[in-house]
Structures are given as C-alpha cells and as structure tokens.
Design brief:
The protein is of the alpha/beta class. Among the domains are: about 100 residues, NAD(P)-binding Rossmann-like Domain (Rossmann fold); about 160 residues, Rossmann fold, CATH 3.40.50.150. Helix content is about 35%, strand content about 20%. It contains 14 helices and 17 strands. Helix 11 links the parallel strand 9 and strand 10. Helix 7 packs antiparallel against helix 8. It is globular and about 65 Å long. It starts with 12 loop residues before the first helix and ends with a strand. About 5% of the residues have low confidence. Pfam families: Methyltransf_21. One of its GO terms (biological process) is methylation. It comes from Succiniclasticum ruminis.
Length: about 375
C-alpha cells in the first residue's frame, strides 16, 4: 500500500505482535489495561503476565493474573514484550517507562480515547491521504511537520521513541509561539480546577483585562470557583456550562475528573453524549444534563484575545460555535487559539482544516507536550 513520504511504519503494533514470537506482558492495571487486553484478544495475542508499580502491588488479581511488581519486571531475564497500559504525564512515571524500554522491548499501544472509533492504520492513512498531506504541507514550521509525522508513526507502531523525538515544553511553546500583553481577554473552555487560568496569569504576570472560564462538571466547577476565591482574582467570570456549537443542554458523563465529556462514539459516528475516557465496566459513571453554550453567545459583542479549547472531544463543535469571533481585532490581530487535538485520531487533520475553513488567515503550529501515550497534542493558531 502506497504511504505518505513522512510515514515510516508499514504495520501496526497489533500486526507486529502476531508474529513477534515473544511473551507479551502488560505494565499497568485498570481501564487502560482493559482496553489493551480487549484489543489483544481481538488480535489473538495471548498475555503472559500483568505488572504494576511496586507501591500498588498487594497480591491482587487482575483478569485472572496475580499482579507482579515493576521491580520484578525490570529484573526479569526472560525476553518479553512489555505493553504500557496506562497513561501519565508525571516525570517520574515516564522515567519508569523509558527505563523499561532500556531493559525490555517496550511499547505504549495506541488505543482510541473513545471506544469504537476508527484508529490509525495503513488503511486509515490511505483513506485520509489527501487531508493528511494538505495539513502537513500547510503547517507553519518544521517542528510542526516533524510532530505531525512522529505522532502518526507512533500511533501505528506504539514506539516510545517517536513520542520522545517530538515532545516539547508547553510553557516555552506558549511564550515563543504566542505573545501576551497586559490587557488581554482570555476565554478558558474546559477550565477544570483553574490550572489553565493560573497558567494564563503566569504568562501575563498577573496582568489582564478579563477572564471568562467555563467548566461543566459540578465537582470541577467548585474547584475552579474555590481557586478564584482563594486568590481573590478580579474581573473573572466563571460559568458552569459546557461548550457546543449552539446553546441548550446535553448529557455530561464523568465522575468529576478531567475526562468528563459530552462525546459518545456510536455506530453512526455522531457526537451525542459520552463514553468517558477512563470508563470501565467496573465503574458506575455518572450522567447528568448540563447547560451548553457557544463561544459566540458567551462573547456577544466582546472580543477575546486568547481562547483555549480543551473540551474532551467536542473541539470541532466548540470551534464551529466560535466562528463569529475568529476575526481580527482593530489592529488586524487574530485571536490566539490553543486547541487540544488528540481526543479523536481525525482531530490531527480535521481540526486544522476546519480552522482554515473558518479563518483562512490562521497560521497553525502543532506541538506534543509531555504525556504517554500521545495525549497533549495541541494546535497553536495565530
């Protein structure tokens, strides 16, 4: 099958495992491991053992295996293939991943955030070849193109080296790609507990005109408002609402973490409600009706200088609802946009193409920030 010139990998990790001829073990338990085990079962690849970080091993069982310690895995002399089956952005945890890779043949399998969605394969790349090539060529710099290629090659192969090669520092990227003044209006979509409000304050050294922060999950919203009160922030408006392409209400699924979302991948591919990123059959996931609004409705006649979109899988709909406010200000400056591009595999090309459709003048940069697997892929548009 003809591949794009920047694609190095011909087969997926799952195809490789069928013929690798080594025992396969997992590092990690929980929801991520559930997904990896299910995919291995579909592929017909048996599992020989389950390992977890030493501090979590208590002699427990997981899918019929007695969970063994990470230290035992490092000391194992048998040649095995290790599949990392949980996600982390913590430096010490990622260091464990890379240490494993220095001892054993180690991969971090790519599985879709939302179960049931199509994912990157050679067939997928051929299907979207034109779109992928278009975005690759239009990205604003060489680092963006290298990141784009590395992410796709990682999703095919599960090789940690691709993630290492393209990972950059988020704070440094924000400062070098964007410039921030002291009179900015910031719209934070998916404000969680106030962490990205705090990030904005650090970028502007505490100087700004106005902040509007939206968070739909009640538990997260309380953390957000507690943060604003604790630091006695002025000119900050918090809204308990989700973001969509229109105003109304939708069913939110989640248990008060970062992955509360409106998205559910059904057979038709439409976004209806949600299957949580960390969903497990062993957990009861809370569902509730919440208010959703569009960016255009929130801003009205105002102009935002900087908008962050990290809305757990509905970035497309959120951008559509911002179409009226992606215009230059009086000085000819477009709003700066930071858009999460990892919740769906198609986001990597579909979101840039949508942005250029809504505002052709945008220059788009792509960056991958520290995380295993390939989460924290972000679009910077200016």
């Amino acid at each position: 099958m003809v591949m794009l010139p920047f694609i190095n990998e011909e087969n997926t990790l799952w195809e490789y495992l069928k013929t690798a001829g080594k025992p396969v073990v997992l590092y990690g338990t929980g929801d991520g491991a559930d997904k990896v085990l299910a995919r291995l079962a579909e592929t017909g690849v048996p599992v020989s053992g389950i390992f977890a970080s030493d501090e979590f091993v208590r002699g427990q069982q997981f899918h019929g295996f007695t969970v063994q310690a990470y230290s035992e895995l490092l000391a194992l002399r048998e040649k095995v293939i290790v599949l990392i089956a949980f996600a982390s952005e913590l430096p010490d945890v990622m260091e464990r991943f890379y240490k494993l890779a220095s001892v054993h043949e180690t991969y971090a399998p790519h599985v879709p955030v939302f179960s049931g969605e199509e994912t990157v394969t050679a067939v997928w790349i051929k299907k979207y070849e034109r779109e992928l090539q278009t975005v690759y060529e239009r990205l604003a710099d060489a680092v963006s193109r290298e990141t784009f290629a590395s992410v796709l090659n990682y999703k095919l192969s599960g090789r940690l080296s691709y993630l290492q090669a393209c990972t950059t520092n988020r704070a440094e990227d924000l400062r070098t790609i964007f410039s921030f003044g002291g009179e900015e209006t910031y719209l934070d979509l998916g404000a969680y507990n106030g962490d990205t409000v705090q990030e904005f304050l650090q970028l502007t050294r505490g100087r700004y005109k106005k902040i509007v922060a939206l968070e739909p999950d009640p538990k997260n919203y309380k953390k957000l408002t507690d943060f604003v009160r604790q630091y006695e922030l002025k000119n900050v408006t918090c809204l308990q609402a989700g973001v969509w392409n229109d105003c109304g209400s939708l069913e939110l699924t989640g248990n008060g973490g970062r992955q509360s979302t409106f998205w559910e991948a059904d057979r038709s591919g439409f976004a209806t409600q949600n299957l949580s990123q960390t969903c497990s059959m062993k957990k009861k996931i809370k569902k509730q009706q919440v208010t959703v609004v569009s960016v255009d409705a929130v801003l009205g006649n105002d102009h935002a200088d900087y908008i962050k979109f990290d809305v757990e899988g509905v970035e497309k709909e959120a951008l559509e609802g911002a179409a009226g406010h992606l215009a230059p200000d009086g000085n000819g400056t477009l709003p700066k946009l930071l858009v999460a591009a990892y919740h769906h595999d198609e986001d990597l090309f579909a979101l840039p193409l949508l942005l250029w459709k809504l505002q052709p003048e945008y220059k788009i940069y792509l960056r991958k920030h520290p995380y295993v697997p390939a989460w924290e892929i972000n679009i910077f548009a200016k």
